[in-house]
Amino acid sequence: MKAVIVGLGYVGLPLAQAAVRSGISIVGLDRSESVVDGLNSGVSHIGDLSDDEVKEMVSLGFHATRDSTVIGDADVVVICVPTPLNGAGEPDLNAVMAASRDIATHLHPDLTIVLESTTYPGTTEEVLQPIFEASGLAAGRDFFLAFSPERIDPGNKKFGISNTPKIVGGVNDVSTRKAADFYEHFVESVVLAKGTREAETAKLLENTYRHINIALVNELAQLCFAMGIDIWDVVALAKTKPFGFQSFSPSAGVGGHCIPIDPNYLAFKVRAELDKPFQFIELAEDINRGMPSYVAKRALKLLDRIGAGQSGTRRVTLLGVTYKPNISDRRESPADPLARALRAEGADVAFYDPFVDEWSVEGTSVPRYESLFEAISQSDLLVVVQAHTEFLENRDSIEGATRPVLDATGNFLGDNVERL
Ligand SMILES: NC(=O)c1ccc[n+]([C@@H]2O[C@H](COP(=O)([O-])OP(=O)(O)OC[C@H]3O[C@@H](n4cnc5c(N)ncnc54)[C@H](O)[C@@H]3O)[C@@H](O)[C@H]2O)c1
Questions:
Q1: Which of 85, 129, 186, 404 is the Cys-Cys partner for 22 at CB 3.0 to 4.6 Å?
Q2: Atom 37 of ligand 1, nearest CA residue
Q3: Which of 306, 265, 288 is nearest to 147 (CA)?
Q4: pTM to 2 decimals?
Q5: Which runs of E-coded beta strand occur in 272-333?
Q6: H or E element: which one contains 145?
Q7: What confidence tens digit (pLDDT) does each residue in 405-414 have?
Q8: How far apart are CA 274 and CA 120, in angstroms?
Q9: Buried b or exposed e, range 354-364, using 16+ CB within 10 angstroms
Q10: How many Å apart are CA 346 and CA 340, to the nearest integer?
């Protein structure tokens, strides 16, 4: 079996790795010259894969290219390109459509095409299928078309591609079967959907569920603080219930390429097709988007309470500026709006993050401390935004700091610590 993976990012590259390790001949197609050149010389550009792992892929026959003619020789093509929001906050399918046009140019009988990019229900059949069928070939008969959502959780050591069940939904049964045949080479459990729309919507349900439950606990965190109730204790108590409750933690806000973006795809489709709002999503958006400024307000109050530093300084250091712990991905990180809100009130923002060397907010570089200890000794206030393992391992230094700490992660206790 020969497969082409289009888009070699956080989703496409681990997929290419799993597939090539299973013995499938894999070519990676990416429009970025630096990604292609880097991978071919054994250099990884994503945190989840090391250079050694890329070298191993290359030794197994993987190579990357910008030349879409490789599709002419493939049995399977999988699309893993970005699906961001445009300036108006609506789905931007430009990359998916550009990749589809490339595939259409080299479409041939018996090719199986799978879309993995997260998108709104209907995309596979309403947007992609017409692009491919313009060739004169019919989906489900001459070539096969399916949607299979990527459920990867970057940094998760327990669940990866092979042991996370893979949903597959085709435009007809034979398309579903063809796509499932591909994934069964390297995924333990392939789950067949009724069709493409069900597979597309299942992914959005999963992410919307997280988005809404995070918003619920974030709103409750604000209310609990105002009422003098410890939200972290509340969550810890509630999660002792062995059924009917799944725990979510308050935070400085949601980030990453999925949770802040994907629910908008669903809300967009509901509005476009039914002319009504998806109320849960809109409320969750409001609450989660408001968290960085809520944390900034709490930080500024703390700063005012202790008085500025000895020489009138207001140095606030953010510990952890990625969107979740122990990864280097900063996409949509709540640290950005948090830094903006703090700066707007005159704070001097700096950061320390073992995974991030450089960070700019609104075009202005944010000073970085070289170590946690330097950050602790040089700041007037520390805000723990992400609970990287290094911070947990140095708990004593944070909890014993002479500076106040605002902990948005609920991991630290101490006279100097105020938790969200
Ligand atoms: N990152 C995640 O954790 C995650 C999880 C589940 C689903 N997804 C979804 O998977 C999709 C891909 O996300 P990602 O995080 O891998 O993106 P990414 O930005 O890490 O990588 C995308 C790659 O596609 C390439 N590309 C863009 N347009 C292209 C084109 N027309 N032809 C060829 N290559 C092209 C880019 O150069 C880039 O290397 C998105 O729809 C995303 O929502 C992401």
A1: 186
A2: 32
A3: 265
A4: 0.91
A5: 315-319
A6: strand 144-147
A7: 999 999 999 9
A8: 14
A9: bbbeebebeee
A10: 10
Beta strands in 157-240 (DSSP E): 166-170, 190-192
Indicate the Cα dihedral angle 224, 287, 307, 305, nearest 10°.
-20
Q: Is the CB of 36 under 6 A from ligand 1?
A: no
**Contact between 1 and 75 (Cβ < 8 Å):** yes
- 32 CB near ligand 1 (under 6 Å): yes
Selection from 351, 347, 349 nearest residue 369 by Cα: 351
CB of 175 closer than 8 Å to CB of 144: yes
Query: By the 8 A CB rule, do 44 and 51 touch?
Result: yes
Q: Distance of CA 121 to CAs 81, 269, 317, Å?
A: 17, 7, 42
pLDDT tens, position by position, 341-387:
999 999 999 999 999 999 999 999 999 999 999 999 999 999 999 99
Greatest Cα pair distance in the chain: 75
Please give the structure tokens belonging to residue 205: 């349900």
Which DSSP letter does residue 313 get?
A: -
22 Cβ below 6 A of ligand 1: no
Number of neighbouring beta carbons within 10 Å of residue 174: 14
Backbone angles phi, psi at 141, to 5 degrees: -120, -60
- Nearest-angstrom CA–CA distance, 401 and 376: 7
- Burial-class residue 399 by CB neighbours within 10 Å (0-12, 13-18, 19+): middle
One-letter-per-residue 3-state SS of 139-157: ECCCEEEEECCCCCCCCCC
Instruction: Report residue 172 as tokens.
Output: 């007809």
Sign of the CA dihedral 215, 218, 224, 225? negative
Report angle CA 286, 290, 293 to the nearest 5 degrees.
165
Return the pLDDT at 308. 60
| 307: its two tokens | 């008085």
| 344 token code pair | 């707007």
pLDDT < 70 positions in the chain: 307-312
What domains does the chain contain, in order, with CATH numbers?
A: 2-194 (3.40.50.720), 282-419 (3.40.50.720)
Report yes or no: 127 and 207 within 8 Å, Cβ to Cβ. Answer: no
Question: Which residues participate in catalysis according to the annotation?
Answer: 258
pLDDT at 157: 85
How far apart are the C-alpha atoms of 272 and 278, rounded to whole Å? 11
Ligand 1 atom closest to the Cα of residue 154 is: 3
Distance CA 202, CA 168 (A): 11
Q: Which atom of ligand 1 is nearest to the CA of 261?
A: 43
